[in-house]
Amino acid sequence: MISTQPNLVYLKAAWAAFAGISGENCRQTYEEAGLTFERINHSAVVRKNKIQVSTMPLHHTRQELRVGFLGRIEMEARKAATEVEAILHRDLELPDGHTMLVMLEESMRFLRRNGSRALSIMIGPTIHAEDPAPIHIEIRVFLDAPRACIFAHQIMPTASGEVNLLAHAPKRERHPRADTYTELAQRIGATLNTVIRTPSATQLAAQTH
């Protein structure tokens, strides 16, 4: 049975293998990048630190190898994205008139094109929302390990303008890390729900009059 959970051990090794022959390391030898090749029948099994990261034809170019890494990485990254999205849909207490957009396909295009490791998730008001102080949230979930960056702002209808809702949050909440993507999504949800439940400056001002 094919696992629906991302293989985190594979992701770590595959990203390291890709980085070892890309960008500033594009001139490294395979040996310097820590890659080994084993011929099995008419294919070459590629390993990074003894972990199999790809299977290639016997004759292939470095670019084909990079593309091969990213193709398999994308399969595991999609599992991670699905895991995070399911937990956030279940746990997040979105304000009225707000919605969440998981930019999966756009993020996967960037992954295939240049090895981007981030999945973007946006939360904001719907087109017809009438909230005078809408909340805008951006979540960047990284697809090499369960970690993320969270940005949350509220647009105030006063001269104060935009308020950073995470200005006083500890770093571990703004840049959460976890052992699994399920745990990461739960931490993100808990942090954002705390922010969402906190009355805005506009609401507090209204309550005092």
What are the key terms here?
single chain, 209 residues, alpha+beta, 2 domains, 5-stranded antiparallel β-sheet, 3-stranded antiparallel β-sheet, 6 helices, 39% helix, elongated, disordered C terminus
Describe the protein's architecture and organization.
This protein is an alpha+beta fold and 209 residues long. The chain is elongated and about 65 Å long. It contains six helices and eight strands; from the N terminus they run αβββαβαββββααα. The chain has two domains: 8-76, no CATH class; 80-204.
What is the domain total for the residues?
A: 2
Q: Please report which band the strand proportion falls in: under 5%, 5-15%, 15-25%, 25-35%, 35-45% or over 45%.
A: 15-25%
The major β-sheet equals: 5 strands, antiparallel
Helix and strand string, N-terminal first? HEEEHEHEEEEHHH
Mean pLDDT: 89
What are the low-pLDDT stretches, counting only 5+ consecutive residues below 50? 201-209
Radius of gyration: 21 Å
**Strand element count:** 8
The helical percent reads 25-40%
Distance between the termini: 61 Å
Name the structural class. Answer: alpha+beta
Strand order of the largest sheet: 4-5-6-7-8
The outline comes out as elongated
Summed up, the helix count is 6
What's this model, at a glance?
The protein is an alpha+beta fold and 209 residues long. The chain contains six helices and eight strands.
